[in-house]
Specification:
Helix 2 links the parallel strand 2 (about 30-35) and strand 3. Helix content is about 45%, strand content about 15%. The longest helix has 29 residues, at about 100-130. By secondary structure, the chain is an alpha/beta fold. It folds into two domains: about 5-235, NAD(P)-binding Rossmann-like Domain (Rossmann fold), CATH 3.40.50; about 235-285, Helix Hairpins, CATH 1.10.287.4290. It has an eight-stranded mixed β-sheet, with helices on both faces. About 40% of the residues are buried. It is globular and about 75 Å long.
Length: about 290
């Protein structure tokens, strides 16, 4: 497999995970557009390093909050865009009690709203080409929550809901979207990590899954994955078999309290894959 003739945008690729992704794509023949906020600097350095290694890379500076402008610039320069890896982001950690509306909005804009803007701008080009791939980089915070990261967790979780909708709406046009929640040692998070841990969770060990999901031959769509240390796992929703009350009689608070252990018992779990399936499973036995 390779990316010959393919154009790939990797946001936030001047360092850390994004830089590892950009280098990996370029190593497989993609023309990589390296995105960072500022002109020059580490973004241009990453593009230069890729070129020195024999790859093809162009630095495209700009805020991902203006993702539609990034897409337009890439189309202008390259004439096409085949895949987007939305990796850029930052944190504004505060407990909810102390978080300001600005701290909430800044994080939502750079992660979730940017994902929408780039998808919206790229969609007609993907349709015209007959193929398009999107990979959103989420976080374990979005899957499981994290103290002091309500804004970040909500934005990262929102990426999965957006991804699932893109998968449904884009399926007939061969537009696919998947989400990866990685854990890798970067300049931003590894200052206090032991060296032996950093050696195990290098960003390069996440890149192969991200690249595979962005490849036109990959048929996975709407998936959610965790990735670290060369270990890749798919995550899915699970729900309990649940409690079914007799609706021929008035439903009471005590009935729920008495049967609550059935509500939270996962002995016989279900795994709905889409909203229609999920909702139908709630009422179909009543019909």
């Amino acid at each position: 497999m390779d990316f010959s003739g393919q154009v790939v945008l990797v946001t936030g690729s001047s360092r850390g995970l994004g830089r590892a992704f950009a280098r990996f794509f370029a190593g497989y023949g993609a023309h990589v557009f390296v995105n960072s906020t500022s002109a020059g600097g580490s973004g241009q350095a990453t593009a230069d390093q890729i070129a020195e290694s024999g790859g093809t890379a162009t630095h495209v500076p700009g805020r991902v909050e203006d993702g539609d402008l990034l897409v337009a610039e890439i189309i202008k320069q390259a004439g096409r865009l085949d895949a987007i890896v939305h990796n850029a982001g930052f944190v504004r950690d505060k407990t909810l009690r102390k978080m300001s509306a600005v701290q909430w909005s800044e994080v939502m804009d750079v992660h979730l709203t940017a994902a929408f803007k780039m998808t919206n701008a790229a969609w007609p080009h993907f349709e015209a080409q007959g193929c398009g791939r999107l990979v959103f980089i989420s976080s374990a915070s979005g899957l499981y929550g994290n103290f002091g990261q309500g804004n970040y967790a909500a934005a990262k979780a929102g990426m999965h809901g957006l991804c699932r909708t893109i998968a449904l709406e884009g399926a007939t046009a061969n537009i696919a979207c998947n989400v990866v929640a990685p854990f890798g040692a970067t300049e931003l998070n590894s200052a206090n990590m032991p060296e032996e841990l950093k050696a195990v969770i290098r960003p390069e060990y996440i890149a192969p899954l991200v690249a595979y999901l962005a490849h036109p031959d990959c048929n996975e769509n709407g998936g959610l994955f965790e990735a670290s240390a060369g270990v890749f796992k798919k995550v899915r929703w699970e729900r309990s078999a649940g409690l079914e009350l007799d609706t021929s009689r008035p439903l009471t608070l005590d009935a729920v309290a008495d049967g609550f252990e059935e509500v939270i018992d996962f002995t016989n779990s279900e795994h709905p894959n889409e909203m229609r399936e999920s909702l139908r499973g709630m009422y179909e036995r009543r019909l």
